[in-house]
Amino acid sequence: MDAVFSREQAAGWDPQILGGASVLLLGGGALGQNAAVNLALAQVRRLWIVDMDDFTASNATRSPFFPNVEERQRWGAAKAVVVAQKVRQMVSWSDQPDVFYSISRIQELGDLPFRWANVAISAVDNDFARAYISGMAKKHGVPLVEGGFDGTLVSYGAFPATAATACWRCAVGEVTDEVRFSCDAYAAELEEEGVTPATQPAAAALAALMTESAIRMLHKQGEDEARRVYLDVVAAQSNVARIGMNPECSGRHHPVDDSAIVTCTAADQPVCRLLAEVQEKLGASTIILDEPLIRHAPCRTCRRAVRVEQPRWKIGGTPACRGCGGNFPRLEGERALPVEVLTRIDERTELPRELTCRQIGIAPGSILDVISESGASFAVEIPGRVEDLMVRVPVPQQQEKEKML
Amino acid sequence: MNVRFAHPLSSDTFEADVDAACTGSLALRGLIDAKFLEPPSRGSYDLVVARTQATIAPNATFGSVGVREQELIQLFRRGAGA
Hints:
The complex is a heterodimer. By secondary structure, chain A is an alpha/beta fold. Chain A is built from 14 helices and 15 strands. Chain A is 29% helix and 23% strand. Chain A has a nine-stranded mixed sheet with strand order 8-7-6-5-4-1-2-3-15, sandwiched between helices. In chain A, strands 9, 10, 11, 12, 13 and 14 form a six-stranded mixed sheet that branches. In chain A, a hairpin with a 6-residue loop joins strand 10 (285-298) and strand 11. Chain B contains two helices and five strands, in the order E-E-H-E-E-H-E. Chain B has helices at residues 24-33, 62-65, and strands at residues 2-6, 13-17, 44-49, 55-56, 72-78. A five-stranded mixed sheet of chain B has the order 2-1-5-3-4, covered by helices on one side. In chain B, a hairpin with a 6-residue loop joins strand 1 and strand 2. The model of chain B has no long low-confidence stretch (mean pLDDT 94). At the A-B interface, helix 3, strand 5, strand 6, helix 9 and helix 10 of A face strand 3 and strand 5 of B.
């Protein structure tokens, strides 16, 4: 038995499985950082951390990787960078994991992270992102562990990759949270309401449970049914619930058909070119968008119609026109219109000729579901390399010398 | 059918007569309106049938999940913070 992993092996972990695993960690906040600690010590092969936020003072007491002044000067305040750098330093005695980071919303990266991962851990703080992650995990057959806390009440869901098992949406229903709050705004809001955000022990307890669940999934255990675990950290009480397939669920439950992939237009090329190429290769067809595209919406202040033409996740709330201090142009000669949302596009969809695939949320490496006029399904791949989306944290030479594995 | 709802934070229960066609979201709305539950500031509540451990999704009916007369329905907070 390997000396370093002797305890873990006795507990049923296989170092070879962990040593070959790619783990996608979505969120670098309290929950994500505590999960990163566990994953690095578990010696997974690769760890990719995705977060778009910066560290702020309110994070400090729940952030094992909160940067000091020197670290902030060296790396900045972006959580993805700092957490990646510091978790790599934490395991300086080993060349695992290989740590990568992206300062980004997960939606911006498209399919490639999920095509790369063996398991995904969701430590995000809004349900729109959770819904997106759930769909992507099912799309690419990736087991998903998702968690959240409300003070000292924590819960996580484990969603196997097995087709026709429940997804996150099966138990949640439609996502209606319209505005994503930043950590600071969330903390301020909760303090006003007299509710205490999570403590470090709660975050650590939840991260431990989630990491253990993810490791079990890597060992192909617990794959028959989705479940959710609830834990009251103060009362030390836990409960487990089964999540069955919900026939009314609008989420995705089956993986994309890899065998039907056709390489097409690049992400930074116009959407109209993609549509023309799809039509040329597959006939009249409709592209299903992974995330809804907001074409028009009323300004949140003056209610006049504004042109948006961006995916919902990019907007982060109700848009404002330029006359009201926002970024979106008004539609000339128009009164307030209802929100116009597209979930699919085809050759007849009117979009500006210069609008690129990336701008409407089709990232490099995306695999798009396409339905032909005859009803046949295809998968169309946009060229892209995962290496272009992630930054690798180098292992410093000093760490090489300190390496004991 | 008559069911009991168990509060997520205390030992309190709430008895209610619900129709088999009642959905999870309607039940939660009723419990909040009856002031048995506080409106969630973030996240939501999950309903779980204690006997079977099956969740009742917001758009699922009590009947579809197999809820019976005198069933105990547990309520849990599903947090949104991270």
